[in-house]
Sequence to fold (141 residues):
Amino acid sequence: MQSRQCVACGQTFRPRLQTPQQCYCANASCQRERRRRWQQTKRQSDIDYRANDAQSQRVWREAHPEYWRDYRQRQPKYAERNREQQRERNARRRARVIANEDASGRDFALTSGTYRLTAADQGVIANEDVWTVEIDVILET
Fold:
């Protein structure tokens, strides 16, 4: 059988005779990558698999409630990287326009007339049921 290039690591390998369509070499890390990709595809396409997987993870988390706290204590570089990434996300979020229900003030009253509502920019964050709109008063002549 002809040699192939591993999809995960790029090294050439000879597929097993029993698996002519083999795309991954026998390296343990490549086999983990193969299983990871299969699971990712399966979660996206199979509702039952996704539900069972989520239930299994929930049971594990309940059985190991201190896992992530302990992991962060053992891995200070991971914890610091996570904190830095959160700071960056917070900074990006603060840079966007935020609308809240009190933005216009309680004593603001619109005059009677015809108004045109247009969509706000995609980057705008709005709280709960608040609508962010541009209002143009159109005067009839």
Summary: The radius of gyration is 27 Å. Residues 104 and 133 are 12 Å apart (CA to CA). Residues 99-141 form one domain.
